[in-house]
Amino acid sequence: MRTALYPGSFDPVTVGHMDVIVRAAAQFDRVIVGILHNPGKPSGTFSIEERIALLEKAVKGLEGVTVKAYAGLLVDAARKAGADLVIRGIRTGADVEMELQMARLNRQIGGVETLFFAASPGTVHISAEMVRQIGRMGGNLQGLVPDSLVHSIGTALAKSQ
Ligand code: PNS
């Protein structure tokens, strides 16, 4: 059984994340969407529990896809998840340098390989950071986050400012 771990902050999940999840689900028996805290970033807007609930709603019906939160290093999460490899999406050149560094470090410190998915053209301009900014100012999140979450994410962000 081939298992992939798709790690990220998912604060909150976007249609860009869903693009990668759906495509990964077509390639692997199991895809574990892993919510990891990035120590280089502040603790986040949505709590881990909220991110799990949003992601679980978003992946409902996708066969083989589950959601789990992990603390600590990505390589340890990959081991705990029993993952054969890690998946990351690449949007533009701006992502490449950081992603290559992470992939090389994860291979060096944990023997974990990373498989990159080229983001679909319709999603390359979308980031969770921009979603948070737009949502906080009451902007329209249609097409930026999964349809089923537009209302809940929009309401939560509008309240969070
Ligand atoms: O969605 P993001 O913020 O781009 O995800 C980044 C994330 C959480 C995958 C990355 O920061 C990470 O792997 N954090 C866990 C800590 C870790 O393993 N750091 C070393 C990676 S080289």
User: How many DSSP E strands?
Assistant: 5
Strand content: 15-25%
The hetero compounds bound to this protein are: 4'-phosphopantetheine
Radius of gyration: 15 Å
How would you write the strand order of the largest sheet?
3-2-1-4-5
Structural class: alpha/beta
Q: In angstroms, what separates the terminal alpha carbons?
A: 44 Å
Quote the average pLDDT.
96
SSE topology string: EHEHEHEHEHH
Oligomeric composition of the shown chains: single chain
Low-pLDDT parts are none
What would your notes on this structure say?
- The protein is α/β, with parallel strands linked by helices and 161 residues long.
- Helix content is 43%, strand content 19%.
- It is built from six helices and five strands, in the order βαβαβαβαβαα.
- It has helices spanning 15-25, 48-59, 74-81, 93-110, 128-136, 150-160; strands spanning 3-8, 30-36, 65-70, 85-90, 114-118.
- It has a five-stranded parallel beta sheet, sandwiched between helices.
- Helix 5 packs across helix 6.
- The protein is globular and about 45 Å long.
- It starts with a strand and ends with a helix.
- 4'-phosphopantetheine binds next to strand 1 and helix 4.
- 4'-phosphopantetheine (PNS) is lined by residues 7-9, 36, 38, 73-74, 102, 105-106.
